[in-house]
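Why should sequence recovery work at all? Because a backbone constrains its sequence more than one might expect. Tight turns favour small or flexible residues, buried strands favour hydrophobic ones, and helices have their own preferences. The token representation captures these environments compactly. In the example below, the structure is given first.
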């Protein structure tokens, strides 16, 4: 059995055990303790969610085909689920960490995720998926490296830098939740954080004294891979580094055709990697900026993240004005054209047998078309909600996948409309059926060639996460349409959601249920032994947590 031992600051990777299903690939173990800590990223003390005492959490750094085991201990005062954004849980929606598939991990309990990162490479992140918790933190980077035998389409960078950007409120997620529940808008965020830290004091009027900012140390002449993720609530951000070109190399886990950008828009939930060469003279440090997009910048000035790029031979501080953002606040054309300019490099070797999953799109038989339309917030039963096609998703108390496993009826309806409904919007547990017809038979093969097209229209910019299919994520621009072809090649129950946290919290999501009527572990792994039970199945929960004993165990 292959075994790798890499030691890093926060956790240890140990190849542990063999089992038939774990064959030859290494197992990497992580212990995640999720708890509140006090931090003052914008100068105001507040409770943030930390992983192993760190905010943001530690980076998970693994290699394609590794089996990732993460034991998550919930030390929050509410339920928790971790989700792995953009990472395909192949054949195992049991590990996806959303309420449609998993029972939540109750306060003071722990639960161990186990999944293989298969046929994927690139930059992703993890975050807590429930109760708006991501607005208080709990996120961290997730790198999947190529195996040594698979070359990357650029020279090995001299360093690897993780940058998590996101809008930030000084109110915590419970306070933000209260606002949303009361039908209020979250309003303008209080700032933008870069790696959990507030802005460098580039302007003494705008930025108060005493705020800790992020510094990225580099050496002149070297080229770094900088991985940037927007982990925020709902603000699209423009990312740029003063005087430096950003050579885009990867977006959402696919290598791209390499192009230089002076700045790039990164919407909520998106991840990109840039190769940045430190080719400037070190007369001063340089600004790294993430500023709010598509807003009136004179009103949103404070919603700007500023970090420092410091050359090892730097002669002074960064000063003066920040590098300009695109000057087109009410014109989305630039941003749309920029998004369109990003192309996959289909000849670059990806981790997959069919690199980037794109070759066979031409040969996919489209079996269903869904027109998904989202509108501004609506009021349903006196509550402000968000919808897709007029349906605001209501999470069932028993997860959909679990209900299927035990053949429970009435938990959900497979009646998600294929176009917007004409009547009043409603709150329902209504999902999309992803059964597939092949020669008159409904079946899912391991590598099926059937697909579904989603035509999405949006009234504001959003990114959509499409469960665990071959496509990953799609950007949808206001008023515009985006056609998304998804290959229905992964059996399970998969979340289709907007990544904008407030809209998602208010019901803008559904699930696509891909079923193979023949129960076989070739197309879906069996229910994990440690599955939690809740809702109608809560009596089946064998292991009952004993808080006192475990508190002794957990408070190290
Ligand atoms: C899959 O099913 C086969 C036959 O039922 C069994 O031998 C095998 O152990 C199962 N594999 C997994 C990973 O459960
Ligand atoms: C969130 O903020 C409220 C005040 O708005 C405070 O009462 C509450 O304790 C905070 N919650 C957490 C989990 O820190
Ligand atoms: C991730 O791990 C690989 C070894 O597997 C190492 O070469 C690389 O530098 C690590 N990257 C980061 C960002 O820690
Ligand atoms: C909780 O953690 C313990 C070890 O610390 C582990 O043995 C157990 O399997 C975990 N529980 C679950 C449900 O994963
Ligand atoms: C695509 O990847 C291939 C293989 O690594 C590389 O040779 C080529 O230069 C890349 N093309 C572009 C346009 O980036
Ligand atoms: C700082 O920001 C304020 C408010 O926008 C502006 O009036 C002022 O000119 C800025 N100061 C500098 C030194 O740029
Ligand atoms: C990108 O810009 C760098 C200078 O920073 C230049 O050396 C390189 O040739 C450019 N690459 C492309 C593909 O335009
Ligand atoms: C370095 O930058 C400073 C400020 O932009 C400039 O005055 C100086 O000429 C530059 N030196 C070189 C060697 O390029
Ligand atoms: C942006 O806000 C400022 C301050 O309220 C206002 O004066 C200005 O007209 C606004 N700009 C646009 C284009 O709406
Ligand atoms: C697609 O459908 C056509 C017509 O039903 C069928 O002939 C063809 O074999 C299908 N292709 C694939 C790849 O399943």
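From this structural description, the recovered sequence reads:
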């Amino acid at each position: 059995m292959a075994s790798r031992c890499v030691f890093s600051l926060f956790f240890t990777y140990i190849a542990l055990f063999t089992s038939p299903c774990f064959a030859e690939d290494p197992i990497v173990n992580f212990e995640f303790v999720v708890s509140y800590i006090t931090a003052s990223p914008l100068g105001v003390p507040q409770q943030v969610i930390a992983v192993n005492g760190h905010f943001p959490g530690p980076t998970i750094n693994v290699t394609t085909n590794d089996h990732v085991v993460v034991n998550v201990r919930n030390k929050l005062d509410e339920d928790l689920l971790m989700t792995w954004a953009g990472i395909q849980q192949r054949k195992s929606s049991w590990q996806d960490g959303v309420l449609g598939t998993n029972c939540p991990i109750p306060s003071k309990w722990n639960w161990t995720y186990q999944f293989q990162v298969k046929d994927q490479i690139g930059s992703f992140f993890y975050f807590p998926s429930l109760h708006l918790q991501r607005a208080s933190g709990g996120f961290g980077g997730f790198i999947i490296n190529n195996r040594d035998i698979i070359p990357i389409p650029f020279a090995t960078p001299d360093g690897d830098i993780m940058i998590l950007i996101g809008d930030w409120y000084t109110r915590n997620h419970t306070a933000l939740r209260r606002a949303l529940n009361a039908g209020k808008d979250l309003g303008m965020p209080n700032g933008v954080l870069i790696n959990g830290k507030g802005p460098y004091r580039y302007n003494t009027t705008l930025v108060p004294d005493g705020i800790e900012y992020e510094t990225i140390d580099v050496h002149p002449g070297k080229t770094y891979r900088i991985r940037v993720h927007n982990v925020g609530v709902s603000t699209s951000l423009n990312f740029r580094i003063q005087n430096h070109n950003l050579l885009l190399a990867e977006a959402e886990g696919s290598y791209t055709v390499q192009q230089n950008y002076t700045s790039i828009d990164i919407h909520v939930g998106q991840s990109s990697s840039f190769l940045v060469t430190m080719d400037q003279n070190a007369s001063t440090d340089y600004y790294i900026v993430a500023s709010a997009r598509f807003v009136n910048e004179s009103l949103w000035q404070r919603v700007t993240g500023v970090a420092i790029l410091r050359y090892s031979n730097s002669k002074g501080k960064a000063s003066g004005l920040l590098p300009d953002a695109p000057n087109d606040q009410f014109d989305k054309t630039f941003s749309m054209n920029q998004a369109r300019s990003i192309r996959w490099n289909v000849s670059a070797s990806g981790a997959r047998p069919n690199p980037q999953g794109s070759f066979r799109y031409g040969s996919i038989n489209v079996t269903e078309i869904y027109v998904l339309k989202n509108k501004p917030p609506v009021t349903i039963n006196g509550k402000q909600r968000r919808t897709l096609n007029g349906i605001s998703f209501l999470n069932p108390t028993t997860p959909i996948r679990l209900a299927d496993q035990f053949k429970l009826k009435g938990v959900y309806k497979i009646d998600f409309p294929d176009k917007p409904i004409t009547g009043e919007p409603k709150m329902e547990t209504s999902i999309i059926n992803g059964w597939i017809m092949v020669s008159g038979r409904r079946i899912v093969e391991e590598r099926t060639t059937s697909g579904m097209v989603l035509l999405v229209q949006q009234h504001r910019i959003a990114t959509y996460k499409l469960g665990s299919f071959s496509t990953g994520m799609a950007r949808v621009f206001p008023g515009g349409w985006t056609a998304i072809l998804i290959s229905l090649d992964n059996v399970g129950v998969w979340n289709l959601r907007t990544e904008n946290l407030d809209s998602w919290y208010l019901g803008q999501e559904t699930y696509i249920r891909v079923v193979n009527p023949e129960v076989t572990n070739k197309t879906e792994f069996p229910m994990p032994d440690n599955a939690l039970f809740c809702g109608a199945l809560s009596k089946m929960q064998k292991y009952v947590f004993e808080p006192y004993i475990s508190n002794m165990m957990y408070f190290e």
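A few observations help interpret the result. The first helix runs from residue 173 to 181.
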